[in-house]
Write a structure and sequence with these properties.
single chain, 263 residues, alpha/beta, 5 helices
Length: 263
């Protein structure tokens, strides 16, 4: 399976422009699964929910960004996972959608909101779902979910073989921490971060880039630079994630003792 990420700097408040950036960035490439950054449709910093609400869209794929992403997935005969701002009635969710040639396969709403995101979004309320593409079990988490080990573990226990991790990282620790998330769950992970900077009335942020793909043993299979627009694709065997054996006498999942983990 060919898996990858596309690291770029989304245009603030411009879903149509970002769709074109994605289309151009992926042109001529071959992949089966590709992950884009968090909120790749809109950019990140907004001072008011009403400002973001106007360019958000429903999760059913009827909006222009997810429709366009579906067209790109159809062109590449692939699954694309992207962050987007989801609108549902009066609420907004920081969400990720997986689409293929037929439309939306699965939607995840960010469970762990970071800092001022709480002023814009409602917290995710659907847990951590898994879905299948090419008979491979996939799961999604978004950015700050990395610091909560329960996120990756929940997906792994549900059978996820690859973690699709759209991100807008501003702190320096995630890329290193995801080595542990992959290793402790023997699972592939794709962290697709963004680059560039954004500022609002009360906050300015610089994004850290360094998107990466990790093996079930925590090995770095690909990594982008801090500021590069970068497309990276690697060949993997998803079945490698099914072997939970850590030593001759240890299976990481069989050796779990949930009864001993009670608070």
């Amino acid at each position: 399976m060919k898996i990858g990420f596309y690291q770029f700097c989304p245009r603030h408040g411009d879903p149509a422009g970002n769709l074109e950036l994605i289309k151009e960035g992926l042109a001529g490439s071959q992949f089966d699964l590709l992950v884009l950054p968090e909120l790749a449709s809109t950019g990140y910093l907004f001072d008011e929910p009403t400002e973001l609400y106007k360019i958000s869209e429903p999760a059913n794929g009827s909006g222009p960004f997810l429709r366009g992403l579906t067209e790109i997935a159809r062109t590449h005969r692939a699954c694309i996972v992207s962050g987007f701002s989801e609108r549902l009635d009066d609420a907004l969710y920081n969400s990720a959608a997986a689409v293929d040639e037929n439309g939306v396969l699965c939607v995840y709403r960010k469970v762990h909101l970071f800092n001022t995101e709480k002023e814009l979004f409602s917290a995710g309320d659907r847990g951590f779902p898994v879905f299948f593409f090419q008979q491979v079990c996939l799961g999604m988490m978004i950015c700050f979910d990395w610091v909560f080990p329960e996120a990756a573990r929940s997906l792994a226990l549900k059978g996820a073989q690859i973690l699709c991790h759209p991100a807008n990282l501003v702190l320096p620790w995630c890329q290193t921490a995801m080595v542990t998330r992959s290793l402790e769950n023997t699972i592939f992970s794709i962290t697709a971060n963004r680059t560039g900077a954004e500022s609002g009335q009360a906050l300015a942020l610089n994004f850290t880039g360094r998107s990466q793909i990790l093996s079930p043993r925590g090995e770095l299979l690909a990594q982008a630079g801090e500021n590069d627009q970068d497309l990276r694709i690697v060949d993997i065997d998803p079945a490698d994630s099914l072997n939970k054996r850590f030593s001759a006498g240890n299976d990481l999942f069989a050796d779990r003792r949930p009864a001993q983990y009670q608070l």
